[in-house]
């Protein structure tokens, strides 16, 4: 799907003309791919990278444009079972226009704040900055979900919550790789600022974006380390809870078997003491209860 944008009152708004400043292709079909490859002369591998969620961030210089691939988080869905995924975005800087290719827009353009003047490089920096902000917001959500799962694991014996914690840890690995990849891209953009044509103001935005990316990456690393430690601790807690439950069931079983043994001894089809005694039933029941209370007293003395 092709969407065109132009700048009106310092904001990007939808346009119909092909001469607009920004053109975005969301999951392009076969005809749109042919247009990108034949008319705009995009590299086929670079175009595929923009649609590949596993591609790393990078920048490549082509004869007529500069190709920039960066990572951004995908919108979370409850169907993912606590798995936060990442996607790739391809931005192609021409002299007077910017072409964006992505598999899922997810508010990629709508989230950009006011734009003082059109600059392909500056617009890319703003998109990367918004992606980092998106990463940071997702990290807060992951932290809250982790806290809730920890409370459930303390009392639960199921593996479901542990699996959810493992899924969160996998998400943090994806985020760390993406943020590290974006950091390398930002360094390359700064080293090639003159070639791209970044202004002094845009260089300041680039430095701020690089700082935000580093802080976000450190935060994700801290969350990942904490979650890894908690995974081991929570697994031990679940194992200990199971041991306590088995201990309780064993005590109950033995406490029941003790009086059963006494009663069984007086239920054999042979001659036994007190078989003609008028109070034999109550005497045997008393002995059974005494045996059970004696066993419980023994457990209390041993502090089992």
What would you note in describing this structure?
By secondary structure, this protein is α+β, with helices and mostly antiparallel strands. The chain has two domains: 2-241, CorA soluble domain-like (Beta Polymerase, domain 2, 2-Layer Sandwich); 245-302, no CATH class. It is 59% helix and 14% strand. It has seven helices and seven strands. It has helices at residues 30-39, 44-50, 120-155, 160-191, 193-196, 200-265, 280-302, and strands at residues 2-8, 11-15, 22-26, 58-61, 66-73, 86-93, 98-102. β4 and β5 form a beta hairpin. It is rod-shaped and about 110 Å long.
The fraction of residues assigned to DSSP E strands is 5-15%
Number of helices: 7
Strand order of the largest sheet: 2-1-3-7-6-5-4
Mean pLDDT over all positions: 80
CATH class of the largest domain: Alpha Beta
Radius of gyration: 34 Å
Distance between the termini: 69 Å
Q: What is the succession of H and E elements?
A: EEEHHEEEEHHHHH
* Uncertain stretches of 5 or more adjacent residues: none
- Tell me the major beta sheet: 7 strands, mixed
Short description:
This protein is of the alpha+beta class and 304 residues long.
What is the topological layout?
Layout: E1 2-8, E2 11-15, E3 22-26, H1 30-39, H2 44-50, E4 58-61, E5 66-73, E6 86-93, E7 98-102, H3 120-155, H4 160-191, H5 193-196, H6 200-265, H7 280-302
Parallel strand pairs: 3-7
Antiparallel strand pairs: 1-2, 1-3, 4-5, 5-6, 6-7
